[in-house]
Write a structure and sequence with these properties.
The chain is about 45% helix and about 15% strand. It contains nine helices and seven strands. The protein is globular. The mean pLDDT is about 95.
Length: about 270
Amino acid sequence: MSALLKSPQQLFDVAGKVAVVTGATGAFGSVAARVLSGAGCKLVLAGGNGDALQALAADLQQDGGEVTSVQKRPNSTEDCEAIVAAAVGAYGRVDILVVASGMNDIGLVAEMDVSRFENVMHANVTGSWMMSQAAGLQMIEQGDGGKIVLVSSTRGELGHPAGYSAYCSSKHAVNGITKALGCEWGKERITVNAIAPTVFRSELTEWMFSDDEPGKSVRAGMLSRIPAGRLGEPEDLAGPLLFLVSPASDFYTGHILYADGGYTAG
C-alpha cells in the first residue's frame, strides 16, 4: 500500500504551495483566497480594486496567511505576465493558478451591441486563456507540474432564455479551453480543470436567497431544477477547489466539475 493511502489526508496537502488568484475580491475569488490561505498556501491576490485587495490581504494576514497582492486584471498579455512576475518575485515560483476574474452583461441578443458581447468574451475567455498561458509557461520552466483551475458555470452546459447569450457563449468557451489545455499540458504534469457552479450566495445573489414569494419567485424556479433542494453556499465551492489544486487530482485534467446540487443532471 502506498504512503498516500496509509495517510490519505496528505492527498489534500497544499501547505507551502504558491497560489495566484485573479479576481480575488469577487464572489468566487474571495472563497478561493480564504480556502487556499487556510490550507497553508502562499498567496498572490490579483484584482482591479486596490482597496478591496488590501482589505482582503490584511484580513488573511491577520489569520496568519502569507499574502501579497497586485492591482491588475488579466486584461492583456503584459498584465498577465506582471501578475506571474509578482508571484515569482515574492515567492520564487507558481504552483497553483485560479482564474476567478470575469464578468456578465445581461441583454437580449436582438438588443445587444456587439461591443458588449466582445467585452464579456474578452473578460471571461481571452483573460482565462492569457492568464493560463502566462502561468503555464512559468510552470513548464519550473519543470515539476502545476495546477490550473478556471471558473465556468452551469451556463457553460446550458442555455438561458433571458439575455445570457454572451455569458453562455463565454462559459462554453472556458470549458473548451479547459479541455484543450488539459490535453496539451498533460505531458508537463500541469492539470487544467474548471469549477462550474450554479447560483451560490454572494453579495450579488443575496436577493435571490430572500426571494420567497411562493411559486412565483426566481428562487422558486431555480429550486425546482436543483435536486439537492437548495441554492449553493460558498462552502460548497471549497471542497471541489481544494481537490483540484491538491495531489488528490493529479490524474484528473480537462474536467468540468459542476458544483450545482444536480442542476445539470436533470
